[in-house]
Design goal:
It is built from seven helices and ten strands. With about 260 residues, the chain is α+β, with helices and mostly antiparallel strands. The protein binds a DNA duplex (14 and 14 nucleotides) through α6.
Amino acid sequence: MPELPDVEVMRRYFDATGLHQQIETLDVHDKALLKDVSTQHLEKTIPQHTFCETRRHGKYLMIAMDNHQNWLSLHFGMTGDLQYFKHAARQPTHVSLQITYENGYHMAYSCPRRLGRIELVPSPDKLIHQHELGPDALSESLDLAHFQKLLGHRSGTIKGFLMDQSTLAGLGNLYSDEILYQARIHPRSSPRSLTTRQAKRIYHMMHKVLNQAIDHKADVDNLPNRFLLKHRQGDRLCWRCGSSFEQARIGGRTAIFCPLCQKP
DNA sequence: TTCCATGTTCCGCA
DNA sequence: TTGCGGAACATGGA
């Protein structure tokens, strides 16, 4: 489930496994995922170098080449994943891109539903600009005043606001529901009609939820029981009041919320 | 078998 | 003209 916390966990995984080693080969297994870059160009540009740094903006993971001239950008769609392994038995299925290091290990990017994207960009700023991404949901530049200003300019629903990557980057269907559940705000609420108190609660819960999810490796099974994510499947009961969650189509996605705890 | 799904992008409408 | 909502996209799993 690659939203901000999942991608941040993958970024740290890449930092711990894939940096500072000579790259021997790069193989593109599914060129349909390449955006504005050819297989030949990737195969020419990346081998015989090392990766030296990673960065994340929203749901994008960017990996710098040692010369800092090129950044490999990975987007994980709905089902993308990374796996660092040595023996073929541990190779995932549906590998779209595989890097082989001189130490005999491989880094596989897999994407079963093929909605991910692979790009090569000159800088993170260029990628952010190309995709018209707003500030990362956890960036320090997005302070409360800035967040409130964004809310004030927006009609539609608060859930749609949170999921719009050009407004702020990183939240998708699951974590927008989670933040609104923790902040006790109805997903259909109008962003510009929120009280200052409500806006502060959403801003605060956005940080708390995302940071806690990252601390728990974005693994649903390990999250605290008060998370909506733990009850989305299964009992579908509100951890606070015990009532059944409601389901509605909001912003083109399935929203889950507590009709009693979450007020417009 | 049919429907639904965490992603983005594109199109139509107000 | 702009912003918002819904459909389309590809594929696997319930």
